[in-house]
Amino acid sequence: MPEDGAKRRRMPPWMRKALPASGDLEAICQLLKDLRLNTVCQSARCPNRGECFAKRTATFMILGDTCTRNCRFCAVKHGKPPVVDTDEPRRVAEAARRLGLKHVVVTSVTRDDLPDGGAGQFAATINALREVIPGVCVEVLTPDFNGKESSLRIVTEAKPDIFNHNIETVPHLYKIVRPQADYNRSLEVLKRIKEINSSIYTKSGLMVGLGESQEDVLKVMIDLREVGCDIITIGQYLRPSPQHLEIKEFATPETFEWYAQKAKELGFLYVASAPYVRSSYHANKFSEKVLTSTRF
Ligand code: SF4
Question: Which of 57, 221, 223, 224 is the most exposed place for a label (fewest CB within 10 A)?
Answer without folding.
Answer: 223
